[in-house]
Amino acid sequence: MNISAIILTKNEGEELKSCINNIQPYVDEIIIIDSSDDTSAEIIADKLKCRYYYKKLEKDNINGFDDLRN
Q1: pLDDT, tens digit (0-9, with 9 covering 90-100), for 5-64
Q2: Does residue 22 sit in helix, strand or coil?
Q3: Closest CA relative to residue 69, chosen from 37, 42, 31
Q4: Gap between the Cα atoms of 70 and 21, Å rounded
Q5: Closest CA to 65 of 24, 25, 34, 42
Q6: SS3 assignment for 49-66
Q7: 14 with 38: CB under 8 angstroms?
Q8: Are 48 and 20 in contact (CB under 8 A)?
Q9: pTM of the entire structure?
């Protein structure tokens, strides 16, 4: 059985790195869904071998955290 972790983030930077390092031993993959305008989450996800997706809230018809989560 594979276990995936999904992390929703916006402007988290170093907090994201800590979060990934804490859950990595317990899951098979980590998926980052980012809605910030900077690239720090993408860089961290790449370095730590996580899948990364960028979603611009207004542009992608996402009206807030609830829509992003769903």
Answers
A1: 999 888 887 799 999 999 999 999 999 998 887 889 999 999 999 999 988 766 666 666
A2: helix
A3: 31
A4: 24
A5: 34
A6: CCEEEECCCCCCCCCCHH
A7: no
A8: yes
A9: 0.81
DSSP reduced 3-state for 31: strand
Specify the length of the chain in residues. 70
Q: What residue type is assigned to position 70 of the chain?
A: N
DSSP H/E element including 19:
helix 14-23
The first and second tokens of residue 3, run together, are 């276990």
In angstroms, the Cα distances linking 34 to 1, 3, 25 are 26, 20, 22
Q: Tokens standing for 39?
A: 């690239």
CA distance 39 to 2: 28
